[in-house]
Write a structure and sequence with these properties.
Layout: E1 3-5, E2 11-13, E3 17-18, H1 25-37, E4 42-44, H2 52-62, E5 70-75, H3 77-82, H4 85-96, E6 101-106, H5 114-127, E7 130-136, H6 140-149, E8 156-160, H7 168-177, E9 180-184, H8 198-207, H9 211-221, E10 225-226, H10 233-240, H11 249-256
Helix pairs in contact: 1-2, 2-4, 8-9
The structure holds NADP nicotinamide-adenine-dinucleotide phosphate.
């Protein structure tokens, strides 16, 4: 596993396991234990995924010291609207059975609320109960708004990102601001046939890798973290074995040309949850 460095000096594994849509806690625990056993050291959950308890149990059952596992969880929108951000954080901590969270994110930029929420995250960060704080689904204008109100720059912005939605401008902006970009649904959650795209198939064949590995390696070479989800051992292994080859500039450019700015998620300025 290779790490990236966050703007406060913390190391973060460049590939982790995402556990969205694993609401069955027995299944979620099994998958997280499996991932940890094959070498994952990063788990991305959220209060709204309803599996923080399973993640906590899996970490305990793995026998791996929790300091060696990088855990992210996220503040849900309802808690921003209710203004019980600190309580929501404590609840996540309790469910995960951890003393601290490695990275705590604001899940969505709830209009009129996210700056207030960030102020609470700052306090949590200063208390040491979160080693880093960041955001998710923020556009540049949301980040600019935070910048005006706070001197703590988010460590991470977790956004929808894959070859069909390469987020070039976001990446440029975040690089400049010292924010690491993180890709959610790097495979489009299996929905768009990305992993069967001819451009990726051709590249994958030349490197004797899978198309999934090409997508993850492309992200890694751009300095973008990925958190692919899989419930299968062979795929879990495949998704972290991307460090023994390097895509040429020409192949990086071919993948860049796949961008069509197509989202599967909602517009970040217009979501109704
Ligand atoms: N911040 C946000 O708003 C937000 C939103 C969405 C997601 N996320 C995060 O991003 C994580 C990943 O996104 P996601 O779960 O939506 O989807 P994803 O990782 O893009 O795709 C998962 C799908 O790809 C399949 N897959 C995984 N590895 C594969 C491989 N090597 N070859 C072929 N197929 C493979 C999985 O099938 P199997 O499981 O059957 O292997 C599953 O159907 C989430 O779990 C969550 O942590 C965050």
């Amino acid at each position: 596993m290779k790490n990236f460095k966050l703007n406060n000096g913390l190391d973060i594994p460049s590939v982790g396991l995402g556990v969205f849509r694993l609401e069955d806690n027995k299944e979620a625990q099994k998958v997280v234990e499996l991932a940890l056993s094959v070498g994952y050291r990063r788990i991305d959950t959220a209060m709204v995924y309803q599996n923080e308890e399973a993640v906590g149990k899996a970490i305990k059952a793995s026998g791996i010291a929790c300091e060696k596992i990088f855990v992210t969880t996220k503040l849900w929108n309802e808690n921003q609207r209710k203004g019980d951000v600190q309580e929501a954080f404590e609840e996540s901590l309790h469910k995960l059975e951890l003393d601290y969270i490695d990275l705590y994110l604001i899940h969505w930029p709830v209009p009129g609320k996210f700056v207030e929420s960030w102020k609470v995250l700052e306090k949590i960060y200063k208390s040491g109960k979160a080693k880093a704080i960041g955001v998710s689904n923020f556009k540049r204008h949301h980040l600019e708004e935070l910048k005006k109100a706070s001197d703590i720059i988010p460590a991470v912005n977790q956004v929808e990102l894959r070859p069909y939605l390469s987020q070039e401008l976001e990446l440029e902006y975040c690089d400049k601001e010292g924010i690491v970009l993180e890709a959610w649904s790097p495979f489009t959650a299996g929905k768009t046939g990305l992993l069967k795209d001819e451009v990726l198939l051709e590249i994958a064949e030349r490197y004797a890798k899978s198309t999934a590995q090409i997508v993850l390696r492309w992200s890694y070479q751009r300095g973008v973290i990925t958190i692919p989800k899989s419930s299968h051992k062979q795929r879990l292994e495949e998704n972290i074995h991307i460090f023994d080859f390097e895509l040429t500039e020409s192949d990086m450019n071919k993948i860049a040309q796949m961008n069509v700015n197509k989202r599967i998620g909602p517009d970040l300025d217009n979501f109704d949850f």
